[in-house]
Amino acid sequence: MVDMLLVAKREVKMGFRNPWAYSFLILFCTFSLSLLLINSQNFVQGYSGTTGSMLNLILYLLPLMTLFLGSFSLTSEKEEGSWQLLSTYPIGTMSFIVGKYLGLSVVLITIVAFGYGLMGLISGVIGSALNVTTYVLFLAFSCGLVLLFLTLALFIGSISKNRWQALTISVSIWFFAVIGWPTLLLAILGIVPFLWVKPLLVVLTFLNPAELVRLYVVIKLGGGSVLGPEYYQWVTWVQQPSGSWIFLTICLLWITCSVLVVYGIWERGRSHG
């Protein structure tokens, strides 16, 4: 436990010294102010065309930002020899991985919170504040994307030998999970028997954190009707009083399984030198 907290503390310090983090902070703040301009032109409440556009903008930026910062953090440990040094000390691999995850989570969520805080402050001053429920759901959407994609970033950093390889894999995963997902989904579902469509749709949705979080927030905003009949069961369980707890449980399972996979990769590398 102590080792994990020390790794997390070290990661927070390194994260806030990383120029990439401040570049993304400026970019996200600019992006947040852009959302504020959208809201000032059309008051946002519930799900609408404006809300959908804002969700898509967040979906484009945050996963890519998370994949870059997370994967680069692990590959830098390999390139600079830090992990080789740390592995000679009595520090557990799980403590190292979880500490990395916690430290990076603090850095990334701080960036997100600062951007939304700045947006909320300015919107309050100029009198064009977002609806509170919508604002909270947007914040939850952003934090969910960060926490889930960070596990993917750790996986990328684990299998990559250097930053360039991590960059290539990160962009590829981001493209297929965010940009190319609708096309990929239609292509796969179009070649399977009709009875397999709904079960396969559920499995594929759980495999894509971007789609998983997006569906939850869209339904919570009241836009479940735009998703189509294939997602009727999703709308039903998300709108239940226990829907949020079920979603949080799914996210925790996703994070836990991903961290265990990353742990297995690093432990195998450690035992084989």
UniProtKB/TrEMBL annotation:
Q: Can you tell me where the transmembrane regions are?
A: 20-38, 58-75, 106-129, 135-159, 171-196, 245-266
Q: Does the keyword Cell wall biogenesis/degradation apply?
A: no
| Residues forming coiled coils | none
One Pfam annotation reads ABC2_membrane_2
Tell me where on the tree of life, at the top rank, the source sits: Bacteria
Keyword annotations of the record: Membrane, Transmembrane, Transmembrane helix
PANTHER family tied to this protein: ABC TRANSPORTER PERMEASE (PTHR43471), ABC TRANSPORTER PERMEASE PROTEIN NOSY-RELATED (PTHR43471:SF1)
Protein name in UniProt? Cu-processing system permease protein
Which organism was this protein described from? Paenibacillus tundrae
Q: Species lineage, top-down? A: Bacteria, Bacillati, Bacillota, Bacilli, Bacillales
